[in-house]
Amino acid sequence: ATAISVQQISVFTPSGEELSVSAGQFAIGRDTSKISADLGNAVSLDKFDLKGWRVVVTLGDELSAKADWDWYYTAVCLIGLAISIALTAWGASFVVNPLMRLSRAVTHVGNLNLDTPISVPTNIREVGLLASVIERMRLVLQRNQTRLEFLAYHDPASGFLNQAGLVKEYDLLVGNEGQIDLIHIKICNYHQIASIFGDEVLARMISSKIDKLQATLAGGVVGCLNNNLIAYIYPSDEGVGIPLMRKMLA
């Protein structure tokens, strides 16, 4: 230790001698009154087989003086704490923000909210791969959902509205003023047509009749039931008149 750090080292013997080193000088003194006196910060050397020996180390002023803790040090500590928190938050944002966006995307996919594309820009490779997998999953679910909705309201063979689709359209028309006519056109020999010429010919025949029906009575909603019955919902102010009906049947 330097003289600046340690001001004095004193060793007290059991017989009252004081061996001291101070400012680079070694001195020996004797004071029997200190044999049993309490020396405050003295350290006993009994455990080193030096029974009755004690050591006192006096530190220099720069170590023994109390620290001056004023507003300046407090402000420096608070500013340093704020800077460290800001840097930590800034660094964590590169991880937390992508994970939060990915979490929201997963929630939307789980709730079947499939209209929003999943975009999670990040430099974390694993998070980017997971986001791309979830985006592909969203596209597959969206296609399946669209397909299921189409099959729920349309005939899979002809693509026209089925009974559920016609009921849905009818419910939308009920609130309007005027008359709603329901016209059925049944192909009585559809079994023979399908067995001889095939289902494709039957489907083209039904499609042709529907085209003529829509050309005669434009503005209605058409559907196909059981692959042999055409249903046409026609909303109008006064309904389909007899002359128009004869024209349509012809």
Properties at a glance:
250 residues; alpha+beta; five-stranded antiparallel beta sheet; 8 strands; rod-shaped
Verbal overview:
Helix 2 (71-110) runs parallel beside helix 3 and helix 5 packs across helix 6 (199-216). The protein starts with 5 loop residues before the first strand and ends with a helix. Strand 2 (17-22) and strand 3 (25-30) form a beta hairpin. The longest helix is centred in the middle third of the chain and has 40 residues, at 71-110. The chain is built from seven helices and eight strands. The chain has a five-stranded antiparallel β-sheet with strand order 3-2-1-5-4. A three-stranded antiparallel β-sheet has the order 6-8-7, sandwiched between helices. It is 48% helix and 19% strand. The chain is of the alpha+beta class.
Distance between the termini: 121 Å
Order of helices and strands: EEEEEHHHHEHHEEH
Helix % is: 40-55%
Helix/sheet category: alpha+beta
Strand and helix map with partners:
Blueprint: E1 6-12, E2 17-22, E3 25-30, E4 43-44, E5 54-59, H1 61-64, H2 71-110, H3 125-153, H4 163-174, E6 179-186, H5 190-197, H6 199-216, E7 221-225, E8 229-236, H7 242-249
Antiparallel strand pairs: 1-2, 1-5, 2-3, 4-5, 6-8, 7-8
Helix pairs in contact: 2-3, 5-6
Summarize the structure.
The protein has 250 residues and is an alpha+beta fold. Helices cover 48% and strands 19% of the residues. α2 packs parallel to α3 (125-153) and α5 packs across α6.
